[in-house]
Amino acid sequence: MVPTTTSSRRLTAWSTLLFLCFVCTGVRAQIVNIEDKRRTIDTIGWKGQIDLGGTLTKNSNTVTTLQGGLRLDRLGRKANVLMLADYRLVQVSGDDAAVNAGFLHLRYGYEPKDKWRWESFTQVQYNEQLRLTARYLIGTGVRRRLYKSDNGKYRSYFGLLYMFEYNELSKSDIIYRDHRLSTYVTLNFPLGKNARVSNTTYFQPRLPDFSVPRISTITALQVGITRRLAVTSNFSLTYDRRVNRDLPDVPATIYTWVNGLRFAF
Fold first, then answer.
1. Which of its termini does the chain have fewer beta carbons within 10 Å around, N or C?
2. CA contacts within 13 A on the Cβ side of 145
3. What residue spans define the domains of the chain?
4. pTM
C-alpha cells in the first residue's frame, strides 16, 4: 500500500470540503467558535459575512499572518442553514515552510417551537501547527435560549449535542475515533452604542470517559464603524491534555488573539 502524504491528505480533505459546499448550497485555534458567527436575521433569505485580518511582527525574524473567513446563511420560516469557511497562513522569514490552517463547517437548524432549536452539523478541518492533518466531525443536538431581553440586545444560550470526531495527527500513526458530548454556554451583550461582546465556553468530554475533557473559552469583541463594516478582536483558549499526552511537542493549553475587519452583506 502506498503511504499517504500530508499534502495528498490535505488535498483529499479540501476536495471533500468543496464537494460538501456545492451539495449543501445547491439544496438550498482547535474548536471553531460557531456562536461568534451567528447573526440575528429578521428577513427570510440569504445573508453573508466576510472577515479579513492580518498581523506583521518583526524581531529576529519577520512573521506574517493572514486570515480570511466567509459566512453564508439561509433563513426560512422554521429552518435555517449556516455555512462557515476559514483559512489562515503563517509565514516566517527564512523558513521555507508556511503553516496553514483551515476549516469548513455546515449546520442545519430547525425550530419546532420558541426558544428551542434542533441542529445537525458536519465539519472538515486541518491545522499544521497543531499537527492536525485532518479532522472530520458529524453531530446533532439541541440549543435552548436561556434569556433574551425585550430589545434583543442581551442574549444567552445553552447547547447540548452529541458528535463523532475523527482525527489524524501528522508525523505519527495516531488516529482518534471519538464519541463526544459537546456542551456550551454563550452570552452576548452590547458594550456601548456600537460595540458588542460575546463569550462562549465549551466542555467536550469523550464518551463514556469524562476524565480527559477538552475545554475551550472564546471571547469576541465587535466595534461597528459603519452599518456594514466593523473592527473585530477575538481571543480563544483551549485546553486538551490528551493530545499533549500523546504528542508532548503539542502544548496542552493553546491560545490565539486575532484582530481584523468584518464586512457584512
1. N
2. 13
3. 6-37+46-264
4. 0.71
